[in-house]
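SEQUENCE WITH STRUCTURE:
===
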Amino acid sequence: MTPLSHGLRRLATPAALLFGSLLLSQHIVRDSTMIASLPDPVGPTGWPRLMLGAVGLCALIWIARELLALRRAAQRHTPIDEEYEGYAYGRAMIGLGLVVLYGIALPQLGFPIATAAFVALWCLIGGIRRPLTLALVTGIGCVALLYIFVLLAQMPLNRGQGVFDGFTVALYRLLGIY
């Protein structure tokens, strides 16, 4: 494989993410005039727009980093993959599997419980082992997300099935969300 084709292959993912974020930002809702009629940017379309914008920005930064790495590798005449030697592919695959499991568990467990479990497991995969740190990151993170999504953005999050629905409602009342 030539260095140019290798470099283009490395740029394919961030370019696809950039293109996808630009394309999807135009299709958040079926009727684009609905977005213009909403009174504030914090409503139901605000969060998807912000996230797609963040994905686009991260993709631009990724593209810039890849271009710089290609330039450095060309100047030094070294293989470009040297900087990624320590990448933990196993952890990355576990992380991707965890995201899929989160999506599957969300309707059954509800947002608060599924998110708390996801954040705690994500931290464990990332190497956080101290119980107090793990509890604080999980607890504060989940409560912050609940306030952002339910109270601020007024998004109806999944409450779960059966006993999990009751727990979610009780938690929302305890937090003063409703």
